[in-house]
């Protein structure tokens, strides 16, 4: 056997070995079911297990605009179906499930779907595990559990998308709602914290504005001091990092502000009469 033949045989053997090792790990879903059969409605730590129907799962992921760049956490993962569906889109996904048997089953399904590099299931408590790095959070829990999670969620990076099957988030109104087969899916976008007094400066001019913002979740109200006059803000909103509002300046011209808030800094543009745009920078007092 020539040296070339010997080395190509070795490469082929190594390939077969690698594939058979992968196959040894990859289980069929039916094999997973043999080990453990969960019952719909079985008790869980804080809520029973009821799986979200496939169409709702897909709708939730679409509402949240999940892409391969996302890190999706499903809180209370059950059999892992939401985490698996997110993994199939190409996102990195994690399911947190308290019931050890359920978590094992979900992890088995992850392997059966050959998603082990994308999706994983953690056996743990959603109130103890850290999901702060998620860009998308999905839930099918209970209204009171959503409320307990709400402070943690509101402290996540602005722009994080949160989607819940069936249950709301108290007085934090959803940014979007979808009805599918008499069920409801909700979407919230974590808003930046914009509450406070901001000083805005228009580039290339001596114009400065003092803007007072009062925030309740994504809804904002307030006023702007331009010169000696105070004008109410109109249509003020915050969506993720983006803040928008309009006001009439001291010349009676309607100005529309669109900006990005990062911590105590704001950058954006101010539109004026005839669509002229000037750059604006600002900081919070
Ligand atoms: C209604 S099921 C939803 C399952 C899955 N997310 C879906 O939508 O198909 C809720 C799941 O949360 C789990 N669970 C209950 N309390 C939990 C907790 N504190 N931490 C993690 N999982 C929990 C239950 O065992 C159950 O599997």
Give a nutshell description of this structure.
The chain is an alpha+beta fold. It has 6 helices and 16 strands.
CATH structural fold name of the largest domain: Rossmann fold
The gyration radius over C-alpha positions equals: 25 Å
How many helices in DSSP terms? 6
Distance between the termini: 80 Å
Poorly predicted segments: 1-24
CATH superfamily of the largest domain: Vaccinia Virus protein VP39
Look at the structure and give the CATH class of the largest domain.
Alpha Beta
Q: Strands of the largest sheet, in order across it?
A: 11-10-9-8-16-15-14-13-12
Question: Could you describe the largest sheet, including whether it forms a barrel?
Answer: 9 strands, antiparallel
CATH architecture of the largest domain: 3-Layer(aba) Sandwich
Describe this structure in words.
The chain has two domains: 26-189, Vaccinia Virus protein VP39 (Rossmann fold, 3-Layer(aba) Sandwich); 196-284, Lipocalin (Beta Barrel). Helix 2 runs antiparallel to helix 5 (100-112). It contains six helices and 16 strands. Strand 2, helix 5 (100-112) and strand 3 (119-123) form a beta-alpha-beta unit. A nine-stranded antiparallel beta sheet has the order 11-10-9-8-16-15-14-13-12, with no helix packed on it. The chain is α+β, with helices and mostly antiparallel strands and 285 residues long. Residues 44-47, 49-52, 74, 76-78, 81-82, 96-99, 102, 125-127, 140, 165 line the site of S-adenosylmethionine. S-adenosylmethionine binds at residues 44-47, 49-52, 74, 76-78, 81-82, 96-99, 102, 125-127, 140, 165.
């Amino acid at each position: 056997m020539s040296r070339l033949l010997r080395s190509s045989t070795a490469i082929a053997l190594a390939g077969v070995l690698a594939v058979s090792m992968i196959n040894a790990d990859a289980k069929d879903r039916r094999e997973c079911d043999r080990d453990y059969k969960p019952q719909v409605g079985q008790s869980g730590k804080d809520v029973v297990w009821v799986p979200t129907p496939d169409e709702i799962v897909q709708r939730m992921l679409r509402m949240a605009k999940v892409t391969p760049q996302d890190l999706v956490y499903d809180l209370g993962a059950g059999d892992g179906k939401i985490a698996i569906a997110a993994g199939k889109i190409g996102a990195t996904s994690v399911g947190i499930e308290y019931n050890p048997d359920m978590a094992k089953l979900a992890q088995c399904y992850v392997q059966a779907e050959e998603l082990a590099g994308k999706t994983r299931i953690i056996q743990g408590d959603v109130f103890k595990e850290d999901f702060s790095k998620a860009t998308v959070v999905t839930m099918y829990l209970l209204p009171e559990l959503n409320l307990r999670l709400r402070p943690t969620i509101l402290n996540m990076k602005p722009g994080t998308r949160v989607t819940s099957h069936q249950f709301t988030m108290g007085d934090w109104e959803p940014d979007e709602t979808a009805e599918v087969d008499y069920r409801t899916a909700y979407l919230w976008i974590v808003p930046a914290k914009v509450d406070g007094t901001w000083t805005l400066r228009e580039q290339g001019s001596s114009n400065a504005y003092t803007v007072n913002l009062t925030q309740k979740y994504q809804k904002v109200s307030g006023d702007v001091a331009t010169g000696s006059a105070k004008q109410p803000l109109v249509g003020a909103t915050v969506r993720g990092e983006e803040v928008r509002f309009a006001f009439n300046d001291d010349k009676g011209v309607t100005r529309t502000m669109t900006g990005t808030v990062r911590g105590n800094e704001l950058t954006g543009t101010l539109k004026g009469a005839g669509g002229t745009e000037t750059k604006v920078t600002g900081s919070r007092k």
